[in-house]
Write a structure and sequence with these properties.
alpha/beta, TIM Barrel, two-stranded antiparallel ribbon, 10 strands, 13% strand, oxidoreductase activity, acting on the CH-OH group of donors, NAD or NADP as acceptor, Aldo/ket_reductase_CS, Aldo/keto reductase, AKR
């Protein structure tokens, strides 16, 4: 079912409800920039915030959450906060320590979702064991992975006690990842898109502009609507309040089957981020 409202949720395979739509803070500067963007998002109805240890802005995200809870009357339980363990910390003990560090920086007692950021060869299975421990101890509500290809997921599933609940991947109309999406769906793993707007590279795409004009929407809004109608969680980044509001104004129109197919047809398997099979930093 397509999300009908900004705060609509998808139920993960463990019963936890995750918002379909959220704010990503990749490359948002620590300090005032990240504080103001996260607060603007929460003030305007966003309930999901996605950060990561390597973004180096968890303290600002935490400060924004604290201030937003006080100023806007939002309860912590209404928010869905995600962070990720970086490659240098993959391993059993080091992943648990990294989780503690992220929690401390965020000033939170738990995370709603904790992800392995990249499938670093030879390291991610021990990290997954650590995530399972954190989950079983009730320290995190849901666990998952990011940038995992089918073969990485197969490798994890072979020995996992608990299946990943989410796989956050680069996904946009130039990289639709259909095979990976089908595999994940078959295993009850929800797909979440990072860089849904291809870092702005799609905003002048003629097919998208024509669809946008027809609906009196922006190309960004069309892409984000396509995500939701495709059953994909999406977390666009913005530091401007007007753009944060605009990105979420996608619940008052619907793309036709033909328009959805046109957007699917833009796929070229082109990435703006690293190839997960060749990223071992």
């Amino acid at each position: 079912m397509t999300a009908q409202h900004l705060q609509d949720t998808v139920t993960l395979h463990n019963g936890v409800k995750m918002p379909w739509f959220g704010l990503g803070v990749f490359k948002v500067e620590e300090g005032e920039e990240v504080v103001s963007s996260v607060k603007a998002a929460i003030k305007n109805g966003y309930r999901s915030i996605d950060t990561a240890a390597v973004y180096q802005n968890e303290e600002g995200v935490g400060q924004a959450i604290k201030e937003a809870l006080e100023q806007y009357g939002v309860a912590r339980e209404e928010l869905f906060v995600t962070s990720k363990v970086w490659n240098a910390d993959l391993g059993y003990e080091s992943t648990i320590a990294a989780y503690e560090t992220s929690l401390a920086k965020l000033g939170l007692e738990y995370l709603d979702l904790y992800l392995i950021h990249w499938p670093k060869a030879g390291k991610y299975k021990e990290a997954w064991r650590a995530l399972e421990t954190l989950y079983k101890e009730g320290r995190v509500k849901a666990i998952g992975v990011s940038n995992f290809q089918i073969h990485h997921l197969q490798d994890v599933l072979k020995d996992a006690e608990i299946k990943p609940m989410v796989n956050q991947i680069e996904l946009h109309p130039r990289l639709t990842q259909q095979e990976l999406r089908s595999f994940a769906s078959g295993h009850g793993i929800v797909i979440e898109a990072w860089s849904p707007l291809m870092q702005g590279q799609l905003l002048d795409e003629p097919v998208l502009k024509a669809i946008a004009d027809k609906h009196s929407k922006s190309t960004a809004q069309v892409i984000l609507r396509w995500d939701l109608q495709s059953g994909i969680i999406t977390i666009p980044k913005s530091i401007k309040e007007n753009r944060i509001i605009e990105n979420a104004a996608i619940f008052d129109f619907e793309l036709s089957e033909e328009e959805m197919a046109q957007i699917d047809g833009l796929n070229q398997n082109v990435r703006v981020g690293p190839d997960p099979d060749n990223f071992n930093f």
